[in-house]
Amino acid sequence: VDELMAAARVRGRLHVRQLAHTRPLCTTRRRTERRDSVDDDVLRDRERHAERLQEAEYDDDVLRDIVTLRLGRFTGYHNQKGITSKQMAREEVSKVTSIGRSLINAPSLNHERIAEVVLAGHSNVGKSSLLNALTGLPAARGIAGVHPRAGWTDSIYLYEAHVQGTQLVLVDTPGYGVAVADSRTRQQWTKALDEYVLSSANARVLFLLVDCTRGLCALDEQLLRRAEARALPCQVVLTKADLLTQEDLARSHAVVCEDLRSRDCESGHPLPAIVSANFFQGIRQLWGLAKHYALRLPPAPAPSALVGNARDERLKDEKQRGALRVRAQRGHARRADYAGTESR
Asked: Hey, how many other C-beta atoms are within 10 angstroms of the C-beta on 332?
């Protein structure tokens, strides 16, 4: 590991020298990104984050963990899809089923009150791709739909997963920020996410996904404040780790940690996790965090009024389904009586 860390330092120093003569890393639109899914705010955030990376000092322990988990870019990183990380991710989950989707009454979909892990973040930060990676499936063949167009996830989706004897519900939410949609639709998505974070009585933790090439943004800060107002634990997760070298990834981790420490928060925040959904790296560690929050922490308190509204909606739906069943039974009985009369 020490030799790998020394090699990562050498690559990082060479990369810093190149940055002095070229434009900062990841500040332009990537080849896989659509023109309508990246705006000037995204590019400015990337450029600002890249400038901070040049001055940041990383933690040796964090770099050692990155090297051990084979995160970031290194020699031969693109040949990882055939290694055991994908199989290890599949072994974590035995079964995944879709519970349903809704934009208004999403908290009422979890009838069995299973512990929920909420995935939230900017558009195209990799929420759906990470959800598929958590189930051990590639983004293109996973249970959650993935598309390069920002705003592809247009509702709140709930998936039930069995993780080594533990039942969890993964919640895929619409992204905020730039999206290929009108302003009214984006406002509806943001309102639905806020209400879900505030009203879901089964939510145990909020996984706030942050692009490692962009860092924390103003909208991320707003979502953190909403989670703190409800005393809902929040775990920051750095995504797209395969876009940075291992040393730059450690610097990005340090920058995000500095931003979290600078916030006026009494409870503080745990160290950010790092994952690569493309190469299934860091997935097992993320499952460990999810199970920790689901099993060891009590449910976060939710506003009674909002929870009551969700319960009333669920009871209303159950009553409607019961009335439909009674009506169907009566119709079947009338048809049977009519058939008997005709035969006589």
From this structure: 10
Provide the token pair at 160. Answer: 């039930």
- Regarding pTM above 0.90, the answer is no
The token pair that represents 274 in the structure block: 């790092």
Which string of b and e fits 257-277 if b means at least 16 CB within 10 Å?
bebbeeeeeeeebeebbbbbb
Question: Got the DSSP string for 103-132?
Answer: SSSGGGG-TT---EEEEEEBTTSSHHHHHH
Question: pLDDT tens digit string along 155-211?
Answer: 999 999 988 888 999 999 999 988 888 888 889 999 999 999 988 889 999 999 999
Task: Classify strands 156-163 and 116-121 as parallel, antiparallel or unpaired.
Answer: unpaired
